[in-house]
Structure formats: C-alpha cells, structure tokens
Specification:
Rossmann fold; seven-stranded parallel sheet; 13 helices; six-stranded parallel sheet; alpha/beta; 2 domains; globular
Length: about 350
Amino acid sequence: MVAISLLTLVPGLSGGSETYARELCRALARVGELEYRVYLPPIASDAADGLDGVVVDSYRGSRTMRGRIAAMSLAAARSAPLRRSLELDRHDAIHFPLSVMLPRVERPPAVTTVLDLQHEEHPQFFGRAELAYRKAVYGWSIRRSRIVITISEHARETLIERYGLPPQRVRAIHLAVDHERFSADGRVRGEFLLYPARPWPHKNHARLYEAFAHVRRERPELRLVLTGEGDFGALPCGVEARGRVASDELVDLYRSAAAVVFPSLYEGFGMPVIEAMACGCPVASSNTASLPEVAGDAARLFDSTDVDAMAGAIEDVLRDPAPWIERGLERAGRFTWDANARAHDAVYRELASS
C-alpha cells in the first residue's frame, strides 16, 4: 500500500500545488494499479477525490501563514503522534506531494515532490524568515527522500546542481490539464488580454503594465484582465483586477481572451500556459525557467525583462492568432493527468521494491 500525505494542503491558497494534489488523486483512482491511502488535514477533508482517505485530526492545518508555520513546527517537534496517525508500518512507500516531508520518516521509503525552487534562483523575492524556512524544510525533505519528484526538467537540473543529488534520484514528471474542463468552444474572442497570476514579485506585473501601455497606443480598445488573490495596488488605465475567480469563470476567460500573456520571471511548471492552450487561446510567454520546456513552439516566447520584447510578442499573437491556437491545442493535448498518475505509479513501485 502507498501512503499519500496531503497534511499541509490549504484549500484555496495552495494554487497549482492544490491542483496537482487533487488531480493526482483523481487520476490514480482512475488508472492507478496499486493500493493507496491519502492522509488529510481537517481543513481539506475532501481532497482524496476517489481514493481511500483518512482525516488526521491531530494536525491542525491553518489558512494563515502564521498558523501554517505553527502547525508544521508543532508537528515536527512532536512527531510521534503524527507518525502513528500515518500508520507508517502498514505502507510500502509514502509520498509527500506538497514539497514538505512532515513528519520526517526513515521507513517506509519516501518520495517528496518539490514543486518549485524559486528561493534558490531568486532569493531576493523572499523575506529573511521565509527564505530560512524554505531552505531548512526543503533541505531536510530532499535529503531524507529516497526519490525526489519535480515537475520540469529545469527544476530537476536545479535540484541536481544545488543539492548535489545523484541524477538517478531525481525524476521530472510534468503536470497536466483537465481536458474535460479546459477545452475550446470556438467562440469569438474578446478585446482583452488575460494574466492569471497573484501579485507576487516574480509574476512581473510592473513590466507587463509597461508593455500593455505600448500595445494600447495602437489598440486603444484593448484591456488587460488580471485574476488572482491579493492586492494589485493602483492599476493603470485599461487594467482591471477580478481577484480570485472560480474555475468555471477562469475557463470562460481563457475561451474569451484575445491572448494570455505570461511574463513570469520564474515558474516550476507554468500550468496557466497549458490551460490557456487547451482552451484555444493564443499565448505569449516568458522564456525563463521551465516555460520554454512547457510551451515548446506553441507560444510566442519573449525575454521577461525586456518590455519592448514583451510588447512585440503580444502584438505578434494579436496580429495572427490562428497558428498559435493550432499549435497550442496540439501541445496541450500531450499533458494528461492519467499519464502523470502512471508515472507516479512507476516511482511507487520502485520504492516498494527497494
């Protein structure tokens, strides 16, 4: 039996990591060939999604950063009750999909998924306390894992280089898209650009505003729509922030937007790029980190630090969207959750046999 620990999941706040955790469970329920048990915090008791789930009442998850750190610190300091709750002796392998091995385990053999290494490549985007926390927690999780999964070859290479890991211990398994939900419907596209991203420093909103202003000189009717929870501050003319939107509304925006612009300075994977492509939306994307690997030749890539290059890429996809739509649909079709789940099953079997 394989244990899957989702104790640190925070519904509505975990972003792409929550999508990964939930979709992995759903796909394993469809195509998995092993036995699984998912361990859940009380605040995410529904996240097993078709697998056998056990709510661990002793882990007090929280929706606030302070509460989350307190819960993890208490669990690390008093790990014996949590170990008993995870029934470690019953399992042949254990998976920690959310970057944190909690509690630390020696047996059964463990795999941890490290979803991004932004703190290694862009430490300037983190406060001192958060940077120290990430380095410590990621460090012990990586060192104690028999195998480390990550979500792009770019992240895999970073793990090998920064942590000195043997290449055979690190596996890249791409994320995917739910093609039943994210799909094209052939509607006429509107006069707006879409950027689905929280207002975090690495999301590069300030340069996007500059590039948008350049494009709008020739296209005064064009708007820029932002989604994502957080304070975007004062917005330039033609820019609107809708905050966090429901999944159905996001799909509607992907299907209606003239293009998605994704100027991020760092992504472990970049799921919105594939989601947009699956909805038949042309994409202009940054050429940094994992994004060229994910987008391939199906997005118009640009230097995320060059405002003129960004504006030029936006103009290109607006001027002639058809080739980008066609290539995007083909590209997105390669990323499925069933394939993702089967790749995880292969890792679980390897761990169990060890």
